[in-house]
Write a structure and sequence with these properties.
The chain is an alpha+beta fold. It has three helices and nine strands; from the N terminus they run E-H-E-E-E-H-E-E-H-E-E-E. Helix 1 runs parallel beside helix 2. The protein is rod-shaped and about 90 Å long.
Length: 182
């Protein structure tokens, strides 16, 4: 967490600066990524304004409060930032849950081929397991195939939201089965 404190129209005060840094440290619990915080403390006559700009992992949040002294302004701006970060965290949680709901569930069954010594009849299911079509890009699916020794992977293309199958060819390359959308 990187914090820079700027004083405008007022002399630098180490006590206020430490108080602001101590209070801003509470925001760590809302973000896993490193944060860059810029605090601007401005005094105009009897008004004390605190403005905080938070940047972290593509997220940018601004909050400002104005009261009679810097300490209460800092407390108010921290409450404002905490509210915004909680809202952002809930929003990300809902997005993650909706992505997980979009995972398609499939059943894979391996059918035994008839041998010449067996009687002619219905094929039998030998192996059965559930597969989940996780949303990902084609590049991510290729990377997963390279890291695993699976013969195929079923996934939901994150750009088109269609079910695709990536399989390993005998020549070492990969093949892709995509549904044709009419």
């Amino acid at each position: 967490m990187q914090i820079s404190v700027t004083f405008r129209h007022v002399d630098s005060n180490e006590e206020i600066k430490e108080y602001a840094q101590e209070k801003l440290a509470r925001l760590k619990k809302y973000m896993d990524a490193p944060m860059n915080l810029q605090v601007i403390l401005t005094q105009e006559k009897h008004r004390h304004r605190v403005e905080v700009l938070l940047k972290s992992d593509g997220l940018s949040i601004t909050a400002e409060e104005e009261t009679g002294d810097f300490f209460s302004s800092i407390d108010a701006v921290i409450d404002n930032l905490e509210r915004q970060l909680k809202k952002q965290k809930q929003k990300l949680k809902k997005q993650k849950e909706s992505r997980e709901e979009r995972q398609w569930r499939y059943r894979m069954e391996v059918i035994a081929a008839e041998s010449s010594s067996e009687e002619k009849g219905e094929p039998q299911v030998i192996v059965s397991r559930n597969l989940y079509a996780k949303p990902m890009s084609l590049e991510e699916a290729v990377m997963q195939m390279k890291l695993s020794d699976n013969e195929f992977i079923v996934f939901t293309d994150s750009s088109s939201e269609t079910i695709n199958v990536l399989y390993r060819r005998k020549d070492g390359n990969f093949g892709l089965i995509q549904p044709e959308i009419a």
